[in-house]
Specification:
single chain, 368 residues, alpha/beta, 10-stranded mixed β-sheet, two-stranded antiparallel ribbon, 15 helices, 43% helix, globular, binds 3-isopropylmalic acid, binds magnesium ion
Length: 368
């Protein structure tokens, strides 16, 4: 338990660290269109992770068979990112695992369990920070309703960056939220670039700037500054509370296109959006940085599914959607197209329990 003096000293340290982060910002961009060898790190994760990753690995081995044989693509299995190992070592991402991860170009990662409370940081948050994966990109589409949303969630700041570094004082607890100019500018740029390159005409900025005046105020302001460089694209503002309602409103929801938003709001609203599409088991997620990128399911490790004996009913769709995004990211358009087409054609419905098909039945009908 801290005293106010200790708390101020630790707050000072946090501010200095953040200043350092700003000073160190920026780096080289990987160009996958000309890269001779692409190394894809494959990480099982916890809970249902190994089950769904096995499906994605199988698919990658089929789609990239020739390139793997020619050594142009390397699939590298990375061990040790399990909750048992992490708790044993007291490290959210053990040093040797992080070293292996950094030797890859892109990662396909199963969900990792995050302990509730305590001080152990989520492995996801550590990886997003260590690899500087600042854009969390989550597409959701419901073609029969004309819905084609893409969420650009800021992925390295907000409540997350210091989420494990809050302060306990007698009778109260304090957490911190950080928004930087460079962090906001780069996520806004990523969202507007996506809009520009994909024929989208509108970007919606979602915050709670009426309450989080400094951090979300800055986020909104910078998004509008960035918007000025994109003349054909209009920008509108929504607060997160009404936006969650909007996504449930069939009268207006199909008009949203690209949504850019701070970390925590993005976390919450993308689960809602995925649920509307067909469940959190149905949506992929890309964590993009300049040097590295990591692709994963939108959902967690689902320990309850295993506890309830539902392991056969895990839904591989989310990690397979993420695999489509990975293939696009490394400029393997044909392979991405084949997988996406096969998924769209596969009519087997996995619901996550015995009301739906099993994972095996889905995979058997996935015609690549
Ligand atoms: C997500 C997940 C993570 C998050 C967890 C696992 C830390 O919910 O990727 O949306 O909160 O970002
Ligand atoms: Mg989430």
């Amino acid at each position: 338990m801290s005293t106010i003096e200790q708390a101020c000293a630790s707050f000072r340290k946090l501010l200095e660290e953040q200043q350092q982060r700003i000073a160190n910002a920026g780096g080289e961009k990987t160009d996958f269109s000309s890269k001779k060898t692409v190394t894809i790190g494959i990480i099982d994760g916890d809970g249902i992770g190994p089950l769904i990753i096995a499906c994605a690995e199988k698919v990658l081995r089929v789609l990239l068979e020739r390139e793997i044989a020619d050594g142009k693509v390397v699939l590298k299995k990375i061990q040790g990112l399990t909750i048992e190992n992490r708790l044993n070592l007291g490290q959210s991402v053990p040093d040797d695992v992080l070293k292996e991860i950094k030797s890859c170009d892109v990662l396909l990662k199963g969900p990792t369990t995050t302990p509730m409370g305590g001080t152990m940081e989520s492995a996801n948050v550590t990886l997003r920070r260590e690899l500087d994966l600042y854009a969390n990109v989550r597409p959701v589409s419901i073609p029969e309703e004309g819905i084609d949303w893409i969420f650009y969630r800021e992925n390295t700041e907000g409540e997350y960056v210091l989420g494990s570094r809050g302060i306990d004082l007698p009778g109260m607890a304090v957490d911190f939220k950080v928004t930087t100019d460079f962090g906001t500018r780069r996520i806004a740029k990523a969202a507007f670039d996506y809009a520009k390159n994909n024929g989208k005409t509108q970007v919606s900025v979602v915050t709670k700037a009426n309450i989080m005046k400094k951090t979300d105020g800055k986020f909104t302001e910078i998004c509008h500054q960035v918007a000025q460089d994109y003349p054909g694209i209009s920008v509108d503002d929504w607060y997160i509370d009404i936006m969650t309602a909007n996504l449930l409103n069939p009268a207006i929801r199909s008009r949203f296109q690209v949504v850019v938003l701070p970390n925590l709001y993005g976390d919450i609203i993308t689960d809602e959006a995925a649920q509307l599409q067909g469940g959190v088991g149905s949506a992929g997620s890309a964590n993009l940085g300049d040097r590295y990128a990591m692709f994963e399911a939108i959902h967690g490790s689902a320990p309850r599914m295993l506890a309830d004996g539902l392991q056969d009913y895990v839904n591989p769709s989310s990690i397979l959607r993420a695999t489509v995004m990975l293939l696009r990211h490394i400029c393997r358009q044909d392979a991405a197209q084949r997988l996406e087409q096969a998924m769209n054609n596969c009519k087997v419905v996995v619901t996550g329990d015995a009301t739906g098909a099993t994972c095996e039945e889905y995979m058997a009908q996935l015609k690549l």
